Amino acid sequence: MTIQTEPVRFDQARPLALAVAIDVAMSGVDVLVVRDILGRLALLLDDRSSKVSGASQGLWAERLTSTLGRYAADRPLLLASKLFQPKAFLASPRAAADIHYRPEPGHGSIRWLDNTVVGADWTRVSTPEQRAGDTRTARTALYGFKGGVGRSTATFMLAKHLAEQGNCVLVIDLDLESPGAGPLLVAEDQLPKYGIIDQLVESALDNEAGLDLVTQATHFQLQRNGELWVAPARGRGEPGSEYTYVDKLNRVYADVPGQGQGSFADRLEAAVRSCEDAVARESRRPDVVLLDSRAGIHDIAAVAISRLCDLALLFGSDNSQTWAGYRDLFTAWLSSGKAPEIREKLRMVASMVPDAEKATYLETFRDHAWECFSVLYDDLVDGDTGFNPSPEDAAAPHSPIPILFAAELVGLDAVSTPGWDDRAFVRAAYDSFLETTTNLMIEGPR
């Protein structure tokens, strides 16, 4: 009688491959675990200084094939000495040390190289040291795992508040699928000819020079010497030409090897710099850049949070969907070894807080946020030092910045309601958010 065994699934394949990699590393050989875009795994052994016997090779290859099933690569065991350019893999900047393995003296190391179609930029975090020589404006990303949490309205309120304090502010609408901040800030007939989407499409062909990308906000008058500039997701187009937004959107995320700026992430970073440079040419360099990011686990959000910003405001309501989504994201940062680099520039925003139950709601929100953020914090035992703020730490990433719920804002057509943002109930809802986030942007995350 034949016993049917359950096939290996995606989540099971990685720990199975790691078990074999640990045995290899314990023999003194450095190991790179490579996962392809389908999830199949192979071990690349650096045998250039530590020789590997033929018997061991056969044993490890057979274990990989038999335990991984369909998730074993066609060549599950590779030797660096047999590759034409082993450094392309072994010295790849995308390879990260495995956080679950601590080598003992005489043992080899284990690193992971994950190849993906999309989403890789969640784990490519720019550190403060890498940004130290960058003279660009400080940037803040506003992000929500789920839509409908008031992110774009908060971007509007924060931008106006900063500009009214005399700052030169640039808002970049990166929500290409559902532009939000742009329409709130600029009348349609005052849009620039081109938007962020045009910059991304044209730069893939090195054709982005001369694009008109920014304009000043039109829906209110600023006091003092502040300025508020906007780079909308879409432009108004050339007179007499059809503006085919959807056709552009269908092409914007493609990586283009050997042409233009290549990857989508590089083009997005260049687009943000181009908008900053455009404001500098028209007036002065922006003091603050606000990136209104796409919701969800999306490539735009990945680049905005991991690579482009100095502060990331994470919006959410106190519900299971919010915490499940953020936990998945934090777990990805932990698994890639990027937790220490990302966690201190994050700050949680509690959106739509019920005013009548504010204190109780925020306490519960804070506790749930701490449980979620603990994925990114260090596990400390007595006497250890590290980053592990307490639930009550008001300056910690998990400590919520509140925005009160205002029923009057539900369904409000902000564009056709002049002065809506100066009403008393709106100011009351956003006062704490504006004060706290402004201080964070000026002083920086701790």
UniProtKB/TrEMBL annotation:
Q: Where is the AAA domain?
A: 141-176
Give UniProt keywords alphabetically.
Answer: ATP-binding, Nucleotide-binding
Matching entries from InterPro entries are given as:
AAA_dom, P-loop_NTPase, ParA/MinD_ATPase
What's the protein here called?
Answer: AAA family ATPase
**What is the species listed in this Swiss-Prot or TrEMBL entry?**
Kitasatospora putterlickiae
